[in-house]
Specification:
The protein is of the alpha+beta class and about 170 residues long. The protein has 5 helices and 6 strands; from the N terminus they run αββααβαβββα. Helix 4 links the parallel strand 3 and strand 4.
Length: about 170
C-alpha cells in the first residue's frame, strides 16, 4: 500500500511539473504550436521544435578556445534567455547557446528559459520587468546585478559575445 501511495505522489508531482513547464499554445499567425512560459530543454524534444533545434545544435561548431575560457567563468553567472519558438533568430541562437554551454560543461542550475508570444509576453518569468524588445534576449547577471545582454543576434560569434560579458 505504501508503494502505491508513493507511486501516486510521484505521478502527481511529475504531472504538475509538466503542466507548469513547457506549455504550448496555438500561434494564431502561423497556425502552429508555440512554447509559452517557463520551459526547459526537454521542450525541444517535441517534434514541433526538435527539427530545428537538433539541426542547429548538431551543425554548430563553437570556437573551442573561447569555450575553454567560458568554462571557468560561466558558473559564476545566472543566465536567463527570453526567446520565442516562432522566431527565426531564437531558432538559430538558442540551440547554439546550448551547444556552447554543453561543451563548456555548464551546470544549468543558474539558468532560466522563458518563452514568449508574439507580443513578447507570458504569464511567467517576470518578462514585464525585463524590458524585452527583441528575441532572443540573453541576460547575464551576478549577485542579482545585470552585467550584460545579447539581444536578437550576436555581433560575430555567440561564444565571443558570451565571453565578453563574463569577463567584464
Amino acid at each position: 500500500m505504501k508503494k502505491l501511495i508513493l507511486i501516486l505522489i510521484l505521478i502527481v508531482g511529475i504531472s504538475s511539473y509538466a503542466q507548469q513547464h513547457n506549455k504550448m499554445m496555438l500561434d494564431e499567425k502561423s497556425g502552429k504550436q508555440m512554447l509559452i512560459g517557463i520551459c526547459d530543454r526537454t521542450a525541444f524534444a517535441d517534434t514541433n521544435y526538435s527539427w530545428w533545434f537538433s539541426a542547429e545544435y548538431d551543425n554548430y561548431a563553437p570556437d573551442s578556445t573561447v569555450v575553454a575560457m567560458i568554462k571557468s567563468l560561466a558558473p559564476n553567472y545566472k543566465i536567463k534567455i527570453v526567446m520565442a519558438s516562432w522566431c527565426g533568430d531564437s531558432k538559430r541562437e538558442v540551440p547554439r547557446f546550448y551547444k556552447i554551454m554543453d561543451t563548456a560543461g555548464y551546470d544549468y542550475k543558474n539558468f532560466e528559459l522563458v518563452c514568449v508570444d508574439r507580443n513578447k509576453q507570458c504569464e511567467e518569468g517576470e518578462v514585464d520587468k525585463l524590458d524585452i524588445k527583441f528575441v532572443p534576449t540573453f541576460i547575464f547577471s551576478r549577485n542579482n546585478v545585470e552585467l550584460g545582454r545579447i539581444i536578437e543576434m550576436p555581433k560575430g560569434k555567440l561564444e565571443e559575445n558570451i565571453l565578453e560579458i563574463v569577463t567584464k
